[in-house]
Amino acid sequence: MSQDGVVITPEVWANATDDDARDRLLAASMSPEEFASYQRGHQTRDEVDRLLSHSPPPAPVTGPTYWMKLRSVAAAIRPRSRLTFWYGAEKGISHRHVDPLRLTRVRRHWYLDAWDFDKEAMRIFRIDRMAPPHVGDRLVDPGPVPRWTPSDDFRAQVLNTGSRMAADLVLRSQDDDALARLPDVDGILDPIDWRTFGFTALVGDWRQLVAALATVDAAITVRGPDDFREYLTRAATRLATISGRTEEDPP
């Protein structure tokens, strides 16, 4: 287990003027066994340096590294595998290892709900503030996903779950890029396998969701609710009429 509460601040990191000094800081953030197995020398120091030197971007990063991190987190959620990563917060950098539970998208940012083993509490982590995570072994006896957590308060506040419409979707892709094909709306992700994801889409009205789904290049199944299915059917009929096509026309 890493040492609870060890945080590397930008000032402390800057005062560590050589690699040996920085390695000592990294080692102080983890147990000897964890440091020995996780240590990647200059690469690890670069990850911490990058997190400390650059404030989080105002808009989400969508490059290859960002999507790699998101895929790694999703891969750890399905089997409930231990996830470890360096994380940059307002106070500095800390090494975290967690039981990953849920992914939530808010205004195009992705957040991980996880049980923090050191804090013994639920925590929320923003994906773009993580260094690339390491997916460890499957947890031997993971606890049940909590019915209520502080993360649910977070969702209620930023997602306005009480006043928005929710649709239950399943998205399937023929390649491993299904995450990048999700509709561009807020929601909660439920990884099923590498190419299949459940997604609870949260929108202000059904028209917003229909417009988002029209741009998705993947197979989508609507599991509910019925009123969204009916709205979607009416929208499809209107579009077919506008295009001059009918159900009897050949494709």
UniProtKB/TrEMBL annotation:
It comes from the Bacteria. PROSITE patterns: WYL (PS52050). Pfam families: WYL (PF13280). Residues 70-131 form the WYL domain. This is WYL domain-containing protein. It comes from Acidipropionibacterium acidipropionici.
